[in-house]
Amino acid sequence: MATHPIRGIALAGGGPLGAIYEIGALLALGETLQGLDLAGCGVYVGVSSGAFIAAGLANGLSPKSMHRMFIESDAADDPFEPDLLLRPALCEYANRLASLPGLLALAAREYLEPGGSAGFFESFGRLAHALPTGVFDNAGVGDYLTQLLSGPKRTNDFRQLKHKLFLVATDIDTGAAVPFGADGWDDVPIARAVQASSALPGLFPPVEIGGRFYVDGALTKTLHASLALRESAKLVLCINPLVPFDARLAAERAHRDEVSVIRGGLPAIMSQTFRTLIYSRMRVSMGRYRKEYPDADVLLFEPERDDVEMFFTNVFSYSDRRRLCEHAYQRTREDLRRRRSELAEALGRHGITIDDKALADEHRTLLARGHRKNHRRPDALGQTAAKLDQTIGRLERLLTTLAAPEGDQPAS
Question: What would the 3-class secondary structure string for the chain be?
Fold first, then answer.
């Protein structure tokens, strides 16, 4: 554990999209903030997909290393395969299916019982108990992390970390937040805690640990940055990938007519609802941190509310990870430039300065970095290829917009 855990990192969730955004944002912060080692902070807090990234940082994995593993995975020694997230929960299906005959017999007996008062839907409603608690099995994530954290200078044991790590999950039977890694909760393997923290209800079955069942930690709070503050962290950098989309703001900035979110159908409505709920809770928490910890600086980095790219991309998308990571990287750099004075003052209190030269370099891109060999400085051809990759991506999105019926085009 660090001697002076005065700096912390708190990472929220957001599915694979959230993890990709956080890697891009961390890369931007890491190369711009001088005097800050993102893999050497005193305390880390992770929720949902943020737990995955926080576990890596606490194990000394730099954002660059995680970029190679999870974004440029085809060139990594420990590649992350996205199909780990999409494996059917076959055991869950089988267990629920096995319970169906008994439930059906009980429902029929209750409905057909002479003089019974139960109606058809009341009696057979119990068949819902046979529905699986999750569509996919995220055990593959736990297996991948177990293998990854068994490498040299890494550990799957909270108690052996040099830095404090908290991974938050929710006890599904009590609704209580459980900070794995805290005293009394640090005997759980880190990989298992990540699996529990990222078990989004409905998508993944609850994860059993010690006879209790756990799901996504975002059910209670979005960031849980207070865990870092209670560990005496005086500076906490927070990254929240999911914000509600403001269609009006997007239209104003793009100088075009406003297009309602409802045109995206049920997925867009559900996404906006989820984002709005967790965002409002996070704002309340941020206000509370300022009151309860007036001597600490809590700095939040997140997408703009008119960010079409982040809203209209599937939260569970992994296929466009390079483009999305580049998007997060560039947007975080823009955020740093926009808030430079405010951030410089807060960071300066902790011995951290902003590298203005790096921030002003318009040629910086993850696309070039990800495709160069042996990590050499990208040559002119590499930079040109990166720009071409970006241009093709913009052209594809433009053609998609032009091909949409009038009035159905998303703001951009």
Answer: CCCCCCEEEEECCCHHHHHHHHHHHHHHHHHHEECCCCCCCCEEEEECHHHHHHHHHHCCCCHHHHHHHHHCHHHCCCCCCHHHHCCECHHHHHHHHHHHHHHHHHHHHHHHCCCCCCCHHHHHHHHHHHCCCECECCHHHHHHHHHHCCCCCCCCCHHHCCCEEEEEEEECCCCCEEEECECCCCCCCHHHHHHHHCCCCECCCCEEECCEEEEEHHHCCCCCCHHHHHCCCCEEEEECCCCCCCHHHHHHHHCCCCCCHHHHHHHHHHHHHHHHHHHHHHHHHHHHHHHHCCCCEEEEECCCCCCHHHHCCCCCCCCCHHHHHHHHHHHHHHHHHHCHHHHHHHHHCCCCEECHHHHHCCCCCHHHHHHCCCCCCCCHHHHHHHHHHHHHHHHHHHHHHHHCCCCCCCCC
Q: Is the pLDDT of residue 384 over 70?
A: no
Q: Are 81 and 73 in contact (CB under 8 A)?
A: yes
Q: What is the mean pLDDT of residues 191-216?
A: 95
**pLDDT for residue 317 is more than 70:** no
Does the model's pTM come out above 0.90?
no
Q: What is the pLDDT of residues 244-257, one digit of tens each?
A: 999 999 999 888 88
Residue 165 reports pLDDT greater than 90:
yes
